[in-house]
Amino acid sequence: MTDTTTRRTKRAVARSRRTGAGATWNSDHIVVHWIVVALLLGAVVSAGVASIDGLLHAAHWIVPAPLLWTLPVAVDVFLFGTALATLALRRRGAIAATIACVVITLVLVLFSASMNWLYIYTTVGIDTTEGLAGAWIKAAMPVLLLAATEIVAALTSTRNNRVNSPLNRSKKKLAESRAEAKSLRAQLRIKNPTASAAPAAASAPTEPLRPQSALPGSEGDLA
Length: 223
What we know:
Layout: H1 2-19, H2 30-59, H3 70-92, H4 95-123, H5 129-157, H6 166-191, H7 193-203, H8 218-222
């Protein structure tokens, strides 16, 4: 009977393992964290490269050929910097500077997206479905650059609030106080064992005293 029960238990455990119910993993593990950061940095680089040629095309209108690189740096690199600066200013509590940085970042995104849209409009045209779709996809690259930058910055600068929350700190202090009080009570019992026995003795029921005349042999003594 025991062998049959053991085999059934093993088969049940094997079935539960095949379901994947116990295959859980810590999504906030340090390895997972850095893998996500690396993937997002790849997205930042890709989005930046995809929007460079649109800005290079617009740079022909304002600077000579040797200085074409200045416009992508002035826009996309500036955009990357303001996105990171927004989080730093928010952490410092500089509300006015944070709002100004957010506005500048959005203006840069809008400008870069417009230049990318115009690049497809002037080179390919938007008369066909491919040209129209390409123009909007090209315009979305600065938006992807900003989104990936914000997520990377938030991941690398945000603490785990659940671990350091005031509620968790209060629970931890309460548990430590209870453990300390329990330890002190145990030490008092060891040092003075009669103190713990006294309340028990005081609470024990006592028999009422009988009168002297009710004791056995008392009548013969009186006689």
